[in-house]
């Protein structure tokens, strides 16, 4: 737990502080748009489901009988590569993040709501993947850590993977900050992103209960602190950002989508879906 705390400080709090210090104080910070908070929570849960789906599909293809839950997974049977396949979920989220980043870059004329959705899906995919990699280098019990243990990755290689994860988060933060459709600019961008990500954790909790508090709250909080840190630093280092406020995303449709997804998580996926 101490190592994980140091990791959050190094890969979340430190870049956040640096970003807030270096950013231009272009305006007085304001509250983030409610629609952006809802879309952030929706993107987290959709990306989490996508990760879990890619944890069970490869196991089914390997001859196992995996079971998909809303916040866990299990399987029956044995296969030599079962532990290695614990890493496929992170690969799935990474792929999702790249796809939505491409959509964000390729569709600049999409509506404010769609662009905010693309932004948060890209952020969740990339930061959930890179944070899992970073954590897996120091905690062998997480999904990526189990895959690394299967591969026999040593301490030196894990240190290299830690650096790769940090560089991935730095790159994701820089690119996303440049493409961001969010309404805040300059230093307020960092505060707005932080407030959005922290507020979204509250909306994410119902998707993850019942579960141990570490799984329910700590995991999304860690991912969001790392995302906030690198997004704030990326925005601070992008001197070409303008000062005009963007249109905020809609609230009603994302809120309905979030409610429908919660019903699916708790009424369907929580019971278990066999593959």
Identify the strand order in the major beta sheet.
2-1-3
What distance separates the N and C termini? 34 Å
Q: Average pLDDT across residues? A: 91
Query: So what's the overall shape?
Result: globular
User: Which percent range describes the beta-strand content?
Assistant: under 5%
**Which parts are unreliable, with pLDDT below 50 for 5 consecutive residues or more?**
none
Total strands: the figure is 3
Provide an overview of this structure.
A hairpin with a 4-residue loop joins strand 1 and strand 2. The protein has helices at residues 2-22, 34-61, 88-106, 112-136, 143-151, 155-179, 187-208, 213-237, 252-267; strands at residues 65-68, 73-76, 273-274. The chain has a three-stranded antiparallel β-sheet, covered by helices on one side. The protein has one domain (30-274). It contains nine helices and three strands, in the order ααββαααααααβ. The longest helix has 28 residues, at 34-61. 69% of the residues lie in helices and 4% in strands. With 275 residues, it is mainly alpha-helical.
């Amino acid at each position: 737990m101490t190592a994980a705390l140091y990791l959050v400080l190094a890969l979340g709090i430190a870049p956040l502080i640096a970003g807030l210090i270096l950013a231009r104080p272009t305006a007085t910070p304001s509250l983030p748009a409610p629609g952006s908070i809802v879309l952030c929570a929706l993107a987290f849960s959709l990306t989490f489901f996508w990760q879990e789906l890619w944890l069970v599909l490869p196991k089914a293809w390997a001859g196992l009988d995996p079971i998909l839950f809303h916040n866990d997974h299990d399987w029956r049977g044995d296969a030599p590569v079962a532990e290695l396949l614990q890493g496929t979920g992170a690969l799935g989220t990474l792929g999702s993040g790249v796809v939505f980043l491409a959509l964000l870059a390729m569709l600049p004329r999409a509506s404010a709501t769609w662009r905010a959705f693309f932004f948060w899906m890209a952020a969740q995919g990339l930061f959930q993947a890179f944070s899992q990699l970073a954590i897996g280098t120091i905690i062998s019990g997480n999904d990526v850590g189990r895959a690394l243990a299967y591969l026999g990755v040593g301490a030196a290689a894990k240190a290299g993977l830690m650096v790769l994860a940090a560089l991935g988060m730095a790159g994701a933060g820089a690119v996303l900050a440049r493409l961001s459709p969010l309404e805040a600019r300059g230093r307020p961008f960092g505060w707005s992103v932080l407030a959005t990500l922290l507020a979204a954790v509250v909306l994410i909790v119902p998707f993850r209960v019942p579960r141990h508090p570490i799984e329910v709250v700590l995991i999304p909080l860690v991912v969001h602190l790392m995302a906030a840190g690198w997004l704030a630093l990326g925005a601070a280092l992008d001197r070409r950002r303008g000062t005009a406020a963007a249109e905020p995303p809609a609230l009603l449709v994302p809120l309905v989508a979030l409610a429908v997804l919660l019903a699916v998580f708790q009424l369907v996926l929580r019971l278990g879906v066999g593959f």
